[in-house]
Amino acid sequence: MALAALMAQPAASAAGEPDLEIKGYLSAWTQDCGGASCSLPVPGQGNHPVLLRLPLPLAPGEVSTVRASENLNLGEGLEISAGISFYAICPYGGAPGTCAGRYFQAQVTLSGPAGAFCASALNAPDFSPFPVLMCAGVSAGGRRFGLTLHRQPL
Predict the structure, then answer these.
(1) Half-sphere exposure of 7 (CA within 13 A, CB side)
(2) Residues 104-135 as b or e (16 or more Cβ within 10 Å = b)
(3) Integer Cα distance of 46 and 153 in angstroms
């Protein structure tokens, strides 16, 4: 499945420092939580590769972003749509021309059988080479529909 949308539009140019390569995988899954306890997750489409390039901001107050949209098969004729956004943030308060304390954010918006929004703020080692994050929405019957971002194939 090809990337449906890929944009790299920094709010301010990061001249002089290479883009950060973000490389990992997406895997879709379902989980029945309708009873007294949840069952083990059931895999859907797994190990869908993602490769993006995130420009890095260099000055305080700058931010850059890259986005992707993917549709993954959950099985049983169901599909989950995921909008993924990654941000690099240079916080205010540093000296001009420097980016001390740069941090990152990963955001996932799910739609399909259940909707969800998940996000995490991360430091560089937790973000790169790919953030690890689970995101799921719950249907009325207690069934979870989710997506996992991971670094290694499952």
Answers:
(1) 12
(2) bbbbbbbebbbebebebebeeeebbebbebeb
(3) 8
Percent of the chain exceeding pLDDT 90 equals 77
pTM of the model: 0.85
- Return the structure tokens found at 83: 């909008």
| Three-state secondary structure call for residue 51 | strand
Pairing type for strands 6-8 and 143-150 reads unpaired
Is 71:4 a contact under the CB 8 Å cutoff?
Answer: yes
Cα(82)–Cα(72) distance, integer angstroms: 8
Count of positions (residues) in the chain:
154
* pLDDT for the residue numbered 16: 58
Q: Tell me: the pLDDT tens digits for 77-124? A: 999 999 999 999 999 987 777 888 899 999 999 999 999 999 999 999
Give the model confidence (pLDDT) of 133-154 as tens digits: 999 999 988 999 999 999 999 9
Q: What is d(CA 147, CA 98) in angstroms, rounded to the nearest whole number?
A: 36
CA torsion angle 13 11 98 128 (round to 10)? -90
